[in-house]
Design goal:
The complex is a heterodimer of chains A (218) and B (378). Chain A has one domain: P-loop containing nucleotide triphosphate hydrolases (Rossmann fold), CATH 3.40.50.300. Chain A is built from six helices and ten strands. In chain A, the strands form two sheets. Chain A has a six-stranded mixed β-sheet, sandwiched between helices. In chain A, helix 3 crosses helix 4 and helix 5 runs parallel beside helix 6. Chain B folds into two domains: 181 residues, no CATH class; 179 residues, no CATH class. Chain B is built from eleven helices and eleven strands. In chain B, strands 6-7-5-8-4-3-10-1-11 form a nine-stranded mixed β-sheet. In chain B, strands 2-9 form a two-stranded antiparallel ribbon. In chain B, a hairpin with a 2-residue loop joins strand 6 and strand 7. In chain B, helix 1 crosses helix 9. The relative contact order of chain B is 0.18. The mean pLDDT of chain B is 83. The chains are: A alpha/beta (218), B alpha+beta (378). Chains A and B meet through helix 2 of A and helix 1, helix 8 and helix 11 of B.
Chain lengths: 218, 378
């Protein structure tokens, strides 16, 4: 499903170049739950963003389901991301001025708002967010915020879920709750790339990869 | 949904909205005040320069110019009807056409000048510039009034006919101080010159810039078509002062307008840039969850349009109110003519949203074309 060939990402800064990804070669099959572990600054997030069509590599080829994602035009890439990929971030990144319901439905696309309504309500019910639908992110706990972010990531049933330290800001109880949701998504056939620097997701993983200094090892 | 999204964002970032709204409202208000006052200023300038007096003197062609300048009027006459011929040529550059008859007479053992004035004719229908003299009334020069101790409302006898002094003219330092102005028809009668005039006074309304040519040549060409047996002389001092004053004013307003547009564009652009920077992460999120460039741009431009539209209404009302309140204090002569210019409202409604959108367009497009990961990170 996911194939990376000689992927390198170099960031240029006034203090020189930073090679975040060094000639990465990696393959993931559909339905896998891959945990990517490594210390801070190892390049885990950069790898995830690159696979998620959100950060163009400096060199190399990334294909998802046979599509070379960075050969697509910007709008095609956005469409691809909208239909194939769900993203969860450590800092939730919810839109602060709209409520829970709107934050979830936002992923489904602005123009088809009404069609997705029932789906959002079902998912919110499953994730225990029914009594929070009209609340804005500032009125939610961290765990609730992450559940909203997860709902937004999976509402459109993407083939691939990219989770970047989704439990990094949560206590153990909420972390396990979030992990349970991701596990459920995986059990329904979704592919998961889970970035973390802890062992929390080890038990769910079909494969654990280590990252250090922009290089990946199994 | 986009509209709903915009409204929620406006409510969330009230301060940014108020700042942007005030920026554009003040800009519109300034322009509305500026243009409303500018109209008053133009009218005031026209009135002030017009009050410098007639600058064109149309006299019979055979007039000896030496005698004309010595006596102050032409010894030859022409039919009074000549003045009416201007009415057939609305596009000509002669305004405030006034048929006059000047004649030196001996009055109370003093040499004075009688000037009979016909009601003004203006092909373009402008308001009267010279004073209007009713039958039986006269305006008397300062020196004459002083010497003979004459006052307003007193009766005087001129060549056997009684006239009431309507006004004693203030000291002018010219031959007007020994002049009596009266109705043309009655002065023609007492001077036995019925139907005759010896001068048509007019105002040149041809304002040419120095590089557009000599206005007198054009005026003479035009006069030749109307009155081939008359000639025109122009008081170039008054004419030049009029033209220079008008050009100076127009250039001044043109420069001020350009400076204002640039300043306001920078101001609004800076606010839009701050707002976009503040929302860069949000743009990254929207892109990350699959929203296309066009929709994101729509959210920003939609907000800019709403701000522009509301600002246009507030700005127009504020600008008109300021012009009505303070314009009168600046332009005292034409104060009563300062009125809201309704066409500026239409312009405000069109230009303010357009201007606001353009200012937001560049920062929004920069943010929307960035990689979402970079935007989120920022």
């Amino acid at each position: 499903m996911i194939n990376l060939e000689n992927v390198t990402k170099i960031f240029k800064s006034p203090r020189g170049k930073v090679e975040a990804l060094k000639n990465i070669n990696f393959h993931a099959k559909g339905g896998e739950f891959i945990v990517i572990k490594g210390p801070s600054g190892a390049g885990k997030t950069t790898l995830l963003l690159t696979i998620g069509c959100m950060l163009k590599p400096t060199s190399g080829v990334i294909t998802i389901d046979g599509d070379n994602i960075y050969s697509l035009k910007q709008n095609e890439r956005t469409r691809f991301r909208a239909s194939h990929i769900g993203f969860v971030f450590q800092l939730f990144y919810l839109i602060p001025y709209i409520n829970v319901f709107e934050n979830i439905i936002l992923s489904a696309g602005l123009s088809i708002y009404n069609k997705k309504r029932d789906k959002v309500l079902d998912l919110a019910n499953n994730l225990g967010l029914m009594n929070r639908l009209t609340h804005t992110p500032s009125e939610l706990s961290a765990g609730e915020c992450q559940r909203v972010a997860l709902a937004r990531a999976i509402i459109h049933l993407p083939k691939l879920l990219l989770a970047d330290e989704p439990t990094g800001n949560l206590d153990i109880e909420n972390s396990l709750e979030v992990l349970k949701i991701i596990k459920h998504y995986h059990q329904q056939g979704g592919t998961v790339l889970f970035v973390t620097h802890t062992d929390i997701a080890d038990s769910c993983a079909s494969r654990i990869l280590q990252m250090e200094n922009g290089k990946i090892s199994e | 949904m986009i509209f709903h999204f915009i409204i929620k964002e406006i409510k969330f970032r009230k301060l940014n909205f108020i700042l942007a709204l005030s920026a554009i409202s003040f800009a519109v208000a300034f322009f509305v005040f500026f243009f409303t006052s500018n109209e008053a200023s133009k009218r005031e300038t026209i009135r002030l320069t017009r009050d410098m007096g007639f600058n064109l003197r149309i006299i019979p062609k055979e007039t000896d110019m030496n005698k004309f300048w010595t006596t102050g009027y032409s010894e030859f006459t022409m039919p009074e009807d000549y003045a009416n011929r201007f009415m057939q040529f609305k596009d000509f550059s002669y305004a405030h056409i006034t048929a006059t008859l000047h004649k030196e007479i001996l009055w109370n053992n003093k040499e004075i000048i009688l000037t009979g004035m016909a009601p003004e004719i203006d092909p373009a229908g402008r308001s009267e510039m010279a004073f209007h003299i009713e039958p039986g009334q006269v305006y008397i020069g300062y020196d004459l009034a002083k010497e003979f101790q004459l006052h307003r409302a007193e009766m005087i006898d001129i060549l056997g006919r009684k006239f009431t002094i309507l006004r004693v003219l203030s000291e002018s330092g010219s031959t007007d101080d020994i002049r009596i102005y009266g109705p043309l028809a009655e002065f023609q009668e007492i001077l036995n010159m019925k139907g005759q005039i010896n001068e048509i006074m007019a105002l040149n309304c041809l304002c040419l810039s120095p590089d557009e040519g000599d206005p007198l040549i054009m005026l003479r060409e035009q006069l030749n078509q109307i009155l081939p047996d008359a000639k025109v002389v122009m008081n170039t001092t008054i004419a030049n002062a009029r033209e220079k004053q008008r050009f100076m004013l127009e250039e001044y307003f043109a420069v001020i307008s350009v400076c204002l547009v640039i300043l306001i564009a920078i101001w609004i652009g800076a606010l839009a840039m701050i707002n976009t920077k503040e929302r860069e992460q949000e743009i990254g999120i929207l892109k990350a969850i699959g929203h296309r460039y066009g929709k994101i741009l729509g959210i920003f431009l939609g907000k800019a349009l709403i701000i522009g539209f509301i600002s246009a209404i507030i700005g127009y009302l504020l600008g008109s109110l300021l012009a009505l309140k303070f314009g009168g204090a600046i332009f005292k002569i034409t104060a009563s003519s300062i009125k809201p210019i309704y066409s500026l409202f239409i312009w405000s409604i069109i230009v303010a949203p357009l201007f606001s959108s353009l200012s937001s367009f560049i920062p929004a497009i920069i943010a929307a074309t960035k990689d979402p990961a970079i935007s989120i990170k920022n």
